[in-house]
Amino acid sequence: MVIGGLTLAVGIGATTAIYSIVDAVLVDPLPLPHPERVVSYNHDAPNLGVNVPLVPLSEGMYLQYAEQARAIESLALLDQLNVSMMTGEEPVEVPAAAVTDTYFRVAGLEPVLGRGFVEGEDAPGAEPVVVLSRALWEQTFGADRAIVGRLVDIEGVQRRVVGVMPGRFAIGDEQLWIPMTIDRAAPDLGSLGHIGIARLAEGRTMEAANAEMQGLLATYAENTDGMREMIDQAGLKADVRPLKSVFSRDLKQPLLILLGMVGFVLVIACANVANLFLVHAEARQRESAVRTAMGASRLDVVRQYLSESVALALAGGALGLVLASFGIKGLLRLAPAEIPRSLDIGIDGSVVAFAVVVSVVAGLLFGLLPALGYGRTAISQVLREGGRSATTGRERHRVRSSLVVGQVALALVLLVGSGLMLRSFAALQHVDLGFRPEGLLTFRYSLPASRYGDGPARMAFHRDLLDRIEATPGVVSAGVISGLPLTQAKSATPMEAVDRPVPSGSLAPVIEQRQVSPDYFATMGIDIVDGRPLGWDDRADGLRGIVISEALARAFWPGESAVGHMIRSQGEENDAWEVVGVARDVRFDGVDDEPLPLAYWPLLNWDVDEAGSSPSAVDVVVRSAGGDPLDVLDGVRAALRGLDPRLPIINPRTVGDVVDDALSGASFTALLLGIAAAVALLLGTVGLYGVISFIVGRRTQEIGVRMALGASTRSVLRQVVRQGMTLALIGLVVGLAGAWAVGRILASLLYGVSSSDPVTFIGTALLLGLVSFVATWVPAYRAAHVDPVEALRSD
Predict the structure, then answer these.
(1) Other Cβ atoms closer than 10 A to 128
(2) Who's near 331: CB < 8 A, 6+ residues apart?
(3) Strand positions, DSSP E, 169-328
């Protein structure tokens, strides 16, 4: 039974490893008091036509909701960002969040040192303060308990540390919190840019909070100039839901599919062990009959079988937990970046409980077959025939054969599923991205408002830095963009063609927009298919030129050149821009998403107090002359340090790594399904081999008689192979039907391949058929070459 225990360990270990991720991401609540009451308090806007998980709040909405909502106990705003912090001579990048002073009340946790924010610390002119995470406090400040009251340089501002939060506290991955400044006397009314989180009032439901928020939104639209039309056009409506669902929205389906697929592996493992138990029970049939004849009840015999099977399953489960603990570490190295709380994924109480339940259920399932099947055998018949019975033999054979058919069918389902995902992943790797990632380095930096407070100052910094980078040895060109492709950056606005405006009262198409430097297109390898790229004179106070994508050109001016036409943001009748170029389409949201209509604004892109506005946080792309793009990183870092030694380089990496990260979700799913399919193929092969070997062993004497009477080696080989392949072919037919159903479930995860792709279905069926033939041929060959004399002597 050692093989049975190891088989179960593999099945339970694989299932437990995937469940641990599902538990952490989808099941286990956020590490907050009463987490079921912490909700996302934002909006949905189905009329926008863009893929956004939620539409946040404006400052004006926040103030009204916080004051008038009664279904919630408290409401806070959250902006996730990265900040530079001086911890010595070198600045470091730290994930952070700007929050309102109510944030820690919503979270419901008290600091381990000091305090959270108090009322008024998010007001203009308040003292700059900061709250640290426990991890940052320990790693950067050596867990110094005197940290409270100390000044820390963050983005060039001296902030006083007022508190340190507990170890596992974080809604995102932030390591420090700073107050979000809101002027309550003149809040921003229309910029929907701040994520809302709330704590439900005790006894109130999300449905009640959602209905109340919808009423408050209607009131806000009536009482706020210009908002009614925008809210109606966007179809803006309240959206209150569990906060965790916001983070796991895109992960739920693939994770549940993976859990279901590795569950197939566990079923195959149980079928294997059930076959072993059937063989074991047959060998002990006479022993069971003797026990029954001596007074043991049928329940006693069934109890014995079940106790043995459950004990074996628990031993396999214990070993499976060990395998799962190692497997989880490997999975986390391969897991896509969007899996939240990855550091909290591991073997905890709920995962152990899951493994125990799975082990007990598995033990009961494969233990019941011999317990119930052999309990029906007549005692006198067993004792008279020495444990052999033609009737019960046929029953046992049918059970074993059914188990093998099921194993082959499930193995084929997994093979087809993994084959579809692998073909989809291969198709994604050959997608035309619209740019050339080879030889590109990228990093990010953010200009603090304390030192770069207006558009011209920021634009001057961007331009000076690009000049310095392009003068660095090994650099061909450099450019900046306010949100690199495939990094989940989102920025969109309704836009219309000046010569074809949308009807009054209608919402213009919501178009993704980016601000770029003139050399961005050449650096990224994005072709200008019509007109010219941007120049430094294309700016709010200059020539006012804009470049658009092919998709946007087709949408606004189908069948004609877009160059020379005028375009504007909806509602900005006196602020039009001339299209000076059309750039090749680029995949921005994801490798598997079609190219978006896109507008590329110049860096100084609209008038603000006649000075213009320029982004403070940008992605830099640097094309190297050859070799590893990271070879020029030191020179690039020196260029940045030469302009501002207090700015850190954020997340330096190759653009190839950015593409790989964008593909990580698909590669992760394909890899795990491939591993599950390989294990299923192995277990299914072993199961088929074991059954055929057992049949051959039971028929050794019969085979010897046939060969003694003149049967040829070929006829014996053919008969045994036919018997094994009949089972395999039945399993293949059943498996193809199951694989078709699973393919429909996988359809939403596939790219460039049909869920009923004939190449995958036929190829995997042939592969499994070939492996099944080998598994059948080996014992058949052994049977065909048995010595008739020895066979006749066997019992």
Answers:
(1) 17
(2) 17, 21, 672
(3) 176-179, 195-200, 237-242
Which amino acid belongs to residue 563?
Answer: V
CA–CA distance, 765 with 735 (Å, rounded to integer)? 9
Report the alpha-carbon distance of residue 162 to residue 50 in Å, rounded.
40
**Distance (Å) of CA 636 to CA 467, 615, 617:** 11, 20, 17
Same domain, 254 and 231: no
pLDDT per residue as tens digits for the range 300-339: 667 777 887 888 888 888 888 888 888 877 777 777 766 6
pLDDT in tens, 213-232: 999 999 988 888 777 777 87
- 360 and 392 inside one domain: yes
What is the predicted pLDDT for the residue at 700? 64
Other beta carbons less than 10 A from residue 692's beta carbon: 27
Query: Which is more confident, 282 or 535?
Result: 535
With residue 79 as reference, give the H or E element that holds it: strand 72-86
3-state secondary structure of 500: strand
- Measure the CA angle with vertex 655, ends 653 and 659; round to 5°: 115
The pLDDT, as a whole number, for residue 781 is: 77
- Across 122-126, 418-422, 540-544, 618-622, which has the greatest mean pLDDT? 618-622
Q: β-strands 151-154, 157-164: how paired? A: antiparallel
Reported confidence tier of residue 793, pLDDT bands at 50, 70, 90: low
In 3D space, the residue among 306, 417, 437 whose CA is nearest the CA of residue 675 turns out to be 417
C-alpha span between 359 and 340 (Å, rounded)? 28
Cβ atoms within 10 A of the Cβ of 390, count?
A: 8
Residue type, 453: G
- Running DSSP on this structure, what letter comes out for residue 55? B
Q: Can you tell me the mean pLDDT for 340-344?
A: 56
Kindly state the average pLDDT of the residues 199-208: 92
Q: Residues 186, 258: one domain? A: no
Query: Do both 488 and 637 map to the same domain?
Result: yes
* Cα–Cα dist 255/260, whole Å: 9
Question: Quick check: 786 pLDDT over 80?
Answer: no
Q: Same domain, yes or no, for 464 and 414?
A: no
Pairs from 532-538 (Cβ < 8 Å, separation ≥ 24): 532/580, 532/581, 533/581, 533/583, 534/580, 534/581, 534/600, 534/602, 536/463, 538/580, 538/602
Asked if 459 and 418 sit in the same domain, the reply is no
**Domain range for 457:** 448-646
Confidence check: pLDDT of 724 > 90: no
Q: pTM of whole model > 0.90?
A: no
How deeply is 228 buried, as exposed, middle or buried, from its count of CB atoms within 10 A (0-12, 13-18, 19+)? middle
Split at pLDDT 50, 70, 90, the class of 609 is: very low
If one counts the domains in the chain, the total is: 3
Answer whether 540's CB lies under 8 Å from 612's CB: yes
Please give the Cα distance from 411 to 673 (Å, whole number): 11
Q: How far apart are CA 543 and CA 537, in angstroms?
A: 6
In a domain, 243, yes or no: no
